[in-house]
Amino acid sequence: MNDLFDTQTDAQRMISRLANVYPLWQTGDVKSVRWDSLVDKFSTLYETDLSPSARQWRKKRGQCCTYLIGARLPGDMVRWVLLVTETGHGEVKLRERLRDIRSERLVWGDYVLITSTKPRTIGGGTHWTWCFTPAAERREANYLTKLAQAAASRGQSFQLKAYTDTLLQRPLHSGIRQQTAKMLRRAQKVWARHANGLSWPGPDPAVLPYFGAYRTRSPQLERSASRSNGPA
Q1: Taking a C-beta distance cutoff of 8 angstroms, is the pair 184, 205 a contact?
Q2: First-residue to last-residue Cα distance in the chain
Q3: 3-class DSSP state of 222
């Protein structure tokens, strides 16, 4: 399939859904006006535009399958990620320098795709999710802590509140959500030490918003992508 999403959040969600079945990847950025040409190229060379049934046919013939995902970026650009199944042979494995998502992490700006363990209370197991890169997490956490201390000492919360609001505009995948909650808890403690009893003005780390249930545009594709025994 060739999917162009309006936001990086939606593109990242799709990538995390497909990562188990399509663990090999390549990525790049192109101008928006070149997206259609890229789609035509990859569809011709690697058959990224196949239906789920055609993908199953390729699997039975020992051929790999591919999936092209794009997201619009500021500056009239598109970031694309080409995903490929591990099993099977194909032209894409001869032409592209593919990386394995399990050993070479896929980084998207401030975010990185990793595996995470679910709590036993919600079923346990592992899943793919996006987190802040270590550098981005340190940057955001340190800035938030400094801002909390300065705002509390001055008794002025508007800058802190404005900044915490921007944190909640990040793509709150489960990994990023957990990291954001940790940052906010740390900032709360700093605020409490310097605010002389003033109430914390930011969001409650225990009740950060969720994305909600993910749905693809194609129920048939969603069912196929979720199967662990073969590509969609």
Answers
A1: yes
A2: 10
A3: helix
Dist CA 116 CA 232 (whole Å): 23
Q: Which amino acid is at 65?
A: C
Per-residue pLDDT tens over the stretch 111-146: 999 998 766 666 667 889 999 999 999 999 999 999
The two tokens of residue 70 are: 């794009």
Backbone angles phi, psi at 171, to 5 degrees: -70, 100
Q: Is the pTM above the cut of 0.70?
A: yes
CB under 8 Å to 72, separation ≥6 — which residues? 4, 5, 6, 7, 32, 78
Q: What is the identity of the amino acid at 54?
A: A
Asked whether the beta carbons of 82 and 103 are under 8 A apart, the reply is: no
State how far Cα 59 lies from the chain centre.
Answer: 27
199-213 per-position pLDDT tens digit = 999 999 999 987 643
